[in-house]
Amino acid sequence: QVQLVESGGGLVQPGGSLRLSCVASGIIFRLYAMGWYRQAPGKQRELVAGITTGGSTNYADSVKGRFTISRDNVRRRVYLELNMVKPEDTAVYYCNAGDNAMDYWGKGTLVTVSS
Fold first, then answer.
1. Considering only CA atoms, which of 22, 15, 44 is closest in space to residue 105?
2. Integer Cα distance of 24 and 76 in angstroms
3. What pLDDT was estimated at residue 99?
């Protein structure tokens, strides 16, 4: 059974930092591209950042220079470092694992940016 479990969400002040973590089980982690998506209230889910099996990364324009995605294949984890957060970063953040055939999702972790 495939499981992706996110953690690290919470309340953070504007300009602050947060680190999200996602641990995967039930898949050969190193063979999957990983991504972080987010969904704000009343909006569609959007890609925040992705990292390939080879370590190449891509980011949404809205988070470039502020967020960093990384992965640890030994620990089967993917991380998202959020820096200089803004109120518009408030959303549920979801971890995604994908290969050419399958797509898996975690249940999400809530990030609230507010003073």
1. 22
2. 6
3. 87
